Amino acid sequence: MTDTKILRKKISESGLKLQFIAEKLGISRYALSMKLDNRSEFKTSEVATLCELLGISCLEEKEEIFFKLKVDL
């Protein structure tokens, strides 16, 4: 499960717009919103693209954001 609190913070800090991120992921803005609300899972390729866009290179940080077993909502 994705820790969307951390991911949303990273997106905010990056200054990137959600529409731009969605386009880079090859999905609609709505589909990105669904993923950011944990209503849909990110594909492996989407995780890789997001990490590249947001400058996330540390394996521990990737695991913390994208591969948490339980997320406090």
From TrEMBL:
**GO MF annotation: an example:** DNA binding
Kindly provide the name given to this protein in its UniProt entry.
Uncharacterized protein
Matching InterPro entries, A to Z? Answer: Lambda_DNA-bd_dom_sf
- Origin organism is Hungatella hathewayi
